[in-house]
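Researcher: Following up on the earlier apo prediction. This time include the ligand. It's zinc ion, with the SMILES given after the sequence.
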Amino acid sequence: MGGDVERKSVSPAHAAVDSVATQTQIAEEIDATAHEATDEPKPATATVDVAPHNDERLEAAPSTDDGTTAAATVGEPEANRSVASIRSKVGDDDDSPVLVLAHRKWFRHVMVPRERVEQVAHRYGVTVEDLRTWNGLSGQTQRMRLGSRLRVFTARVPPHREKTAYTVAEGDTWWSVALRHGVDGRDIRAYNYPSRGKMTPGSRLQIWVDPIVHAWITEGGDPLPDDEAFALRRGGLSVGRPDAGWLVNGVRLPKGAGYHLRLPKSAYGSSHAVEQIMIGLTLFRLVSENPHDLELGAMSRARGGELGGHRSHQSGRDLDIRLPRRDGVPSWVELTRRRIDWLTTWHLVQAMLHADATAIFLDYAAQKQLHRAAKAAGVDRKELRRVLQYPDGRSAAGIVRHSPGHEKHMHIRVGCGPYEVECAE
Ligand SMILES: [Zn+2]
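Model: Understood. Below is the ligand-bound prediction.
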């Protein structure tokens, strides 16, 4: 590979997006195999043009904990990630469209408008603290000047946001344009300041999109493809951690048979989390004979962030469900240990684990009841051990984990979806 960098740009499948300008933002040294991996299948629409980027040189690589990396100073960049490579990844069976290298290397990230330091850390799967240290940033720095460069030492290489131009169509709103691009509507307004009033059809907007998210939203039909099974909208994105994150274009849990939303204003989640919850609820209906509707409590607010009375529930991946009560117990009485249907609770846990629940928080005392009921129903010991902490203590391994205050409801946490580039476990 020579010093020249291949720049690839793609005419997006989405007709409404008329140009995607790729930016050389990562200066990198990607080993041959990884480079080949990104180049594998190219969409038919891909065009390749060549542009030199001799200025892309990383000055000095800071030394790191393992000490081996100081030598990994980046010289000439050898590869540039592009929409083309991402699109090819998105089409793969492979779960994540993010490139993961065998070893960590130094990369340079160029800040795009409205991007926060925290988001950059999540993007590369590094801690915010490390990112600050590598770049000499104080804890106060949230955003940086457009075009500022950050050094990142990582094996996780997502693409950067890219500038797209969008021509406003009849009937568009800030909201609809935001959904179409997987971007927060407030960001779109900010990108296009001062033209933030009513949109005029035919006018052009600049939007910074995440190529992975954008491809995911637009790869189906126009304008917003539905989830096949549950008719859910794509583009609801979890950003950051459940206890320090937010939600972009949150999707509300739909109404459905067998459950009801107690807090519809706090029933928003990422597309992935809502889809997984729906899968769990559907499985639950198939396996249980629960005579009552399940009562779903808080998930997240439409835009995530802090939710009164909860430490987590910030990023659209947490859901509280009241433990199912026995037949004949009215909904208005206080839920006590004896009034809870523990076998049905076990079925609910199992259904959620078949969906992408990465953890279920439930008080240890409640786990004991669950253990007893499941054992009586013939669940084998190995399975009980895999799922529950009981009887090995509240710090034992188990997908169901002790958490104080979860005696009458369980708290389900869904993992990050494959297209949620800035979602952090
Ligand atoms: Zn909760």
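Model: The domain at 237-414 is CATH 3.30.1380.10 (Muramoyl-pentapeptide Carboxypeptidase; domain 2).
Researcher: Noted. I'll compare it with the apo version next.
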